[in-house]
Hints:
- There is one protein chain.
- By secondary structure, the protein is an alpha+beta fold.
- Helices cover 32% and strands 28% of the residues.
- It contains three helices and five strands; from the N terminus they run E-H-H-E-E-H-E-E.
- It has helices at 21-32, 39-54, 95-108, and strands at 8-15, 69-76, 80-87, 111-115, 118-124.
- The chain has a five-stranded antiparallel beta sheet, with helices on one face.
- The longest helix is centred in the middle third of the chain and has 16 residues, at 39-54.
Amino acid sequence: MDVPHDSREVSLGIPAKPEYLVLVRLALSAVCRLTPLGPDEVADLKLAVTEAATSRVQADQPGDDESPELRVGMRLEEDRLEVTLRGGTASALPDEERELSRAIIEATVDRFDEAGESTLLVKQLAASPG
């Protein structure tokens, strides 16, 4: 894959368990420091990522020693920040919860695509003055 010079990427893999989502949020906070996003926008983006990841993680089950991996990619472009989630374990969320989660995500990011094994969240970055 060709990556333009002005893009930066971060990729991490975590066990697909809720207690590891804090690591994704911390990594996202660090990446957001490189953007012009304000604190409220960063908080919204972290909420969107948490909501998107919730359907891909499951709490420990008795006798469950191994957990699938959740892969999270963050790509910082000049005009946008893209977050991609892949893998994990599909959790059976009730329809009401799934609809609420989707509404939260759509209200907090500029683009939201769910395509089978992959979820893409995009936050547009305001042009810096000057």
